[in-house]
Design goal:
The complex is a heterodimer of chains A (about 650) and B (about 220).
Chain A (H helix, E strand, L loop, with lengths): L1 H12 L1 H9 L2 E2 L8 H21 L9 H10 L4 H28 L8 H23 L4 H15 L5 H9 L6 H33 L12 E2 H26 L24 H8 L1 H6 L1 H22 L5 H28 L2 H21 L10 H6 L2 H13 L16 E3 L5 E3 L13 H9 L1 H4 L23 H14 L4 H13 L12 H11 L42 H9 L22 H11 L15 H5 L14
Antiparallel strand pairs in A: 1-2, 3-4
Helix pairs in contact in A: 3-5, 3-10, 4-5, 5-6, 5-10, 6-7, 6-9, 6-13, 7-8, 11-14, 13-14, 17-24, 21-22, 23-24
Chain B lengths: L1 H6 L8 H8 L18 H28 L1 H4 L26 E6 L10 E11 L2 E16 L2 E6 L10 E3 L4 E3 L6 E2 L16 E7 L2 E5 L14
Antiparallel strand pairs in B: 1-9, 2-3, 3-4, 4-8, 5-6, 6-7, 8-9
The chains are: A mainly alpha (about 650), B alpha+beta (about 220).
The complex binds FE2/S2 (inorganic) cluster (FES).
The site of FE2/S2 (inorganic) cluster has 10 residues of chain B, from loops.
């Protein structure tokens, strides 16, 4: 029955002969492992077609939906992480296999006559595959792909004569926009695969016409493609599949934060297989000669030599030149790639940029999975509105010239300046570290360790002020009071009273990190101390309210004050916002103030985000914050205020 | 290898059998028995293995991809369709676990004499990864009956136009094909196939909570869609 059906089919299509021809291709000298590379490439391409088409069913190419759909594929859809991971890692496997295949063709002399045409077809395929990598890299529309592809399109723009026009056509406009994605997607999923299939068919057809380039024809008896070589090819493909699957399962494709044209991505790097070119372009000599030289002429010349190889081989020692050239270029690529990796690993700024990107990448996944989901404006707006993401950036921009945050500038970088011997040294903070501003520890330090807590002020240019009205830690009234408090609270009986006092002050304001965690009994005892009751050992202290007489009432920003900073709702968002806006106001430090007023320097939204960050008012996070650099920056004995995360 | 390739004629594909036979050492019809290596049986194991591995490398990615494509079925009943409990979303709608939406008006806003009030129901609409908060999803007629609320979907059970209220006639009336209903939603003529569709409504602490549903048109049964 089946036999007659097949006979019927064969009679009409001649398929038996085709299959027969495909399977019983002669393999002189027996099946070999060294013949598998071409087959693994075809297999990987098929793998890319399968996973690519399925990804296509869930991908949405536009600036507001590309990242979002990829996020959804990766984090929500069934097996999405695996499918995307396979596509991602198979693409890289393809580059590796391609390099092996090409090197083998050259050292085996398989490019020589009569196989010139097929060699050239292979080079065209190489170009197409590189094009697929390049276009695919942009599609997730994440920071990494966005900024890496910017470099590629800029290189395109450096093409002589038609550069600017070429770039604009490819991008679908002068800047990246929706059409950049639709164009790249059409290239990636339509035009380039179509070309690839066409050229691959030609490549295989011509390959079959000339047969294998036999390495040692007399080693084993001749055999046929089926089944001996098919088995070896199959095992190799299985190996490729296994490696790709393992990477997809255990590593997973990266998805960096959504592309943001307004936020430069300092960690931008091309995919690892383009790193050599990236590193090459960074040489000063190359940079001098211009982008077109390094990124177009030099690679063009190398490709040209590659292209000419079948002709060069006809010359005396031509083949030896070709082989030497191949190894030389390979060696150069390996060296440059290693250099790039090594330099990046030792570049503190680059590592900080990567840390920030990872922090943002984790954070955006948290935000996108909230019940409010992703707004129509796109996921990038979630990050722009998020205090936990924006706060550190704003801190670095506005506060870090004097203050530090856990020793770093808010974004994880330790600030450095040129030292006496010309080498960079850690710059000295000129104001207090603010990582735990407003926390219990912070309050405690102000009460019993004031002078030490504000000691970094001594590093400031203005300190000590010539003018008597200016602030001096040595004769500051509060510093004196703090000494007395420290003495009073030192008695073992009074140990609980300091906590009680702080608890009462914390209970008076809303601070998200504290909400629901107020110890009411402790706060009540603290209130008694504020009201003037003696400490547990019977000693009397001056109440905070004696000077800061608004403690206990609602904070209101009037700009007026009686010579002592207004500490109503101290540490609350309301208080902090007013303070940052105008710290020199009579309501705060008055004439003693040295901090700039930010009312005109920051817009209201940024101020709000910064204050919400510093007071812990944002969606709960499990993202690890930047590691503390306190001991590095403030010395082995850090300020008495132990670092405490802003929100838990 | 050049002799082999000279032997291959420069012909189009139509009669390939001849070339194939010429190009391979094995007989075209019975390769198994007349293997040129002279080891006919060994091939079976190799063939089976080659075929199996070939099948595996093809099937594995196809199956993984296929399951990915079946995502809507696989994740059915997942958290994605569950109503959101509580009202802690900025600009969003407050909805309970049973799907009752809290309306913005209380029972006090409805006339005590039972005159119907038209109300646009809003809900948060989820579109894969986006959420559109507070979108109109339909409208209802609300009538106060003492301290209870009677709610009708305004969609006509006939063919889906919007049913109006005619104060002059004291009835509900659909302008499309003149269906008419009394104030309790019962049909007053033979055009509508069933009564107006009532919706579950509750009064909790003075606020109206409503479970908004739509029903299939033109059937005598009330079947939710
Ligand atoms: S749709 Fe209302 S009467 Fe036909």
């Amino acid at each position: 029955m089946i036999r007659s059906l097949l006979a019927w089919l064969d009679h009409r299509t001649g398929c038996n002969d085709l299959i027969h021809e495909a399977l019983y291709e002669k393999v002189p000298g027996g099946a070999r492992w060294r013949y598998v590379w071409g087959s693994t490439l075809v297999f990987t391409f098929v793998l890319q077609m399968i996973t690519g088409i399925f990804l296509w069913t869930a991908y949405s190419p536009s600036a507001q939906t590309a990242w979002e759909s990829v996020y959804y594929i990766q984090e929500v859809m069934f097996l999405g992480k695996i499918v995307r991971g396979m596509h991602h890692f198979a693409a890289q496997a393809m580059i590796v296999l391609l390099a092996i295949h090409l090197i083998q063709v050259i050292i085996d002399g398989a490019y020589k006559a009569p196989r010139e045409i097929n060699f050239w077809l292979g080079l065209v395929l190489l170009k197409i595959i590189l094009g697929l990598s390049l276009t695919g890299y942009l599609l997730p529309w994440d920071q990494k792909g966005y900024y890496a592809t910017q470099v590629s399109t800029k290189i395109m723009g450096a093409t002589p004569v038609i550069g600017a026009q070429l770039q604009e056509v490819v991008q679908g406009g002068a800047q990246y926009n929706h059409h950049t994605l639709t164009r790249f997607f059409a290239m990636h999923a339509g035009i380039l695969p179509g070309l690839l299939i066409g050229f691959l068919a030609l490549h295989l057809y011509v390959f079959r016409r000339h047969g294998l380039t036999v390495h040692q024809p007399k080693k084993n008896p001749d055999t046929t493609f089926w089944p001996d070589q098919v088995l070896k090819d199959g095992v190799a493909c299985l190996g490729v599949l296994a490696v790709v699957l393992l990477f997809a399962i255990f590593k997973g494709a990266e998805l960096s934060p959504p592309a943001d044209a307004a936020k430069a991505y300092a960690a931008a790097r091309p995919e690892w297989y383009f790193l050599f070119l990236f590193r090459f372009l960074k040489f000063e000599a190359v940079e001098h000669l211009g982008l077109a030289f390094g990124a177009i002429y030099v690679p063009g010349a190398l490709m040209g030599i590659l292209f000419m190889m079948p002709l060069t081989a006809k010359l005396k020692a031509g083949h030896r030149f070709n082989v030497a050239f191949t190894w030389l270029v390979t060696f150069g690529i390996v060296v440059l790639t290693t250099m790039a990796f090594y330099e990046d690993a030792n570049n503190e700024d680059h590592q900080a940029a990567i840390a920030e990107a990872e922090r943002d990448a984790h954070r955006i996944k948290e935000l996108a999975s909230l019940p409010s989901m992703i707004p129509v404006e796109g996921a990038v707006s979630l990050l722009r509105e998020d205090p936990f993401t924006r706060g550190p950036v704003l801190f670095a921009k506005y506060c870090a010239s004097c203050h530090r945050y856990n020793g770093h500038n808010g974004r994880g970088n330790v600030l450095r300046e040129k030292g006496d011997n010309g080498k960079p040294v850690i710059s000295t903070p000129e104001a207090t570290d603010l990582a735990n501003f407003g926390s219990r520890d912070w309050m405690k330090a102000i009460i019993v360790d004031y002078r030490n807590h504000f000691a970094p002020l001594k590093n400031a240019q203005w300190y000590p002020g010539a003018d008597d009205a200016e602030f001096n830690l040595e004769d500051s009234e509060m510093a004196g009071a703090s000494e007395e408090y420290a003495e009073a609270f030192k008695a073992p009986e009074n140990a609980g009273d300091l906590n009680a006092l702080v608890e009462a002050l914390v209970a008076m304001r809303s601070w998200k990190g504290d909400e629901g965690k107020i110890d009411a009994a402790l706060a009540k005892r603290g209130q008694q101390i504020l009201d003037g009751e003696p400490l547990a050992d019977g000693s009397e202290i001056q109440s905070c309210t004696d000077c800061h007489d608004t403690i206990g009432s609602d904070f209101e920003f009037t700009g007026e004050g009686g010579g002592y900073p207004d500490l109503a709702e101290y540490g609350s968002a309301k208080w902090l916002k007013a303070f940052i806006s105008d710290p020199g106001s009579d309501q705060f430090y008055g004439a003693k103030n040295h901090m700039p007023a930010y009312a005109d320097k920051m817009n209201a939204k940024d101020l709000d985000l910064l204050v919400r960050y510093m007071t812990g008012d944002y969606h709960e996070t499990h993202v690890e914050d930047y590691p503390s650099r306190i001991t590095e920056v403030f010395g082995a004995t850090p300020p008495p205020v132990a670092a405490e995360p802003a929100a838990e | 290898m050049s002799e082999n390739e000279n032997a291959t004629p420069e012909a189009d594909e139509t009669p390939p059998a001849v070339e194939a036979t010429a190009a391979t050492c094995c007989g075209a019809s019975t390769p198994d028995e007349s293997d040129c290596s002279g080891k006919p049986r060994r091939n079976f194991v190799v063939e089976a293995l080659a075929a199996t591995i070939g099948a595996v490398v093809g099937i594995v990615p196809a199956v993984i991809g296929g399951l990915f494509f079946l995502d809507p079925l696989v994740r059915k009943g997942d958290q994605k369709d569950e109503p959101i409990v509580g009202g802690n979303e900025p600009g969003g709608v407050v909805k309970d676990a049973l799907g009752f939406i809290r309306l913005t008006l209380g029972i006090d806003a409805l006339p005590e004499d039972g005159t119907p009030v038209r109300y646009t129901v809003r809900d948060d609409i989820v579109n894969v990864w986006n959420k559109f908060p507070n979108q109109p999803i339909g409208s209802v007629w609300l009538r106060r009956i003492q301290d209870q609320v009677l709610a009708f979907n305004t969609v006509c059970p006939h063919l889906g136009c919007a049913v109006d209220h005619r104060p002059s006639e004291g009835d509900f009336y659909c302008p499309c094909h003149t269906s008419a209903f009394d104030m309790d939603g019962k049909p007053l003529n033979v055009i509508p196939p069933r009564a107006m569709d009532t919706l579950e409504a509750e009064v909790r602490e003075g606020r109206i909570w409503l479970k908004y549903q739509e029903f299939r048109g033109a059937t005598s049964e009330k079947v939710p869609v």
